[in-house]
Amino acid sequence: MLKIVGGRHRGRALDAPEGLKVRPTSSRTREALFNILAHAKWHEDGTSPLIDARVLDAFAGSGALGLEALSRGASHATFLDNDAASIRLIGENLRKLDEVGAAKVVRADATRPPPARDPCDLVFLDPPYRSGQAASALSALADAGWLAPEAIVTVELAHNEDIVPPQGFDSIDERRYGAAKIVILRRT
Questions:
Q1: CATH code that applies to domain 2-17+26-187
Q2: Exposed/middle/buried for 147, CB within 10 Å: 0-12, 13-18, 19+?
């Protein structure tokens, strides 16, 4: 069962898609990632990149990463996915957690996103493992205005997969958790 692992919604269940089409980030990986984000000193003023952040959850699937961010202090989350079933599921999870007012759900391909209205400070990029879509999605999202200057981007890949960050991004951390690897980048 998929649950929120921390913050004000801790322990609340989320609906997860059935089958193998969507692979939600494991609870262990989400908890580790959000602990890193909560204690990171990547902002000049020493504050967490999570608090009051505008978040983009791209390749959102169940929306677990964006919902976790809202639970832990983000001010707004946009969920981007091109699958109709995932879009419906994210809407149900937002209603279940009473977070509809702090979110927007957009049906679109992260490698060809629509123009952004407001750039995001924190971006979760979780493409299908071994799809090779991470770098191209990151470039496309930046070009479409989705990333604020100095935005923090977390990219989830298979443990044996790599990303060459596109121009304008620096790698600031990398961790492995079982089948997953998290690469954390900063927009420069």
A1: 3.40.50.150
A2: buried
pTM of the model: 0.93
- Where do the domains of the chain lie? 2-17+26-187
Give the separation between CA 57 and CA 176, rounded to whole angstroms.
20
Of 75, 81, 37, residue with least CA distance to 63: 81
Instruction: Round to whole Å and give the CA distance between 13 and 117.
Output: 31
**What single-letter amino acid sits at 15?**
D
- Segment 46-95, tens digit of pLDDT: 778 898 999 999 999 999 999 999 999 999 999 999 999 999 999 999 99
> Residues in the chain, how many?
188
Angle at CA of residue 12, ends 58 and 3, nearest 5°: 55
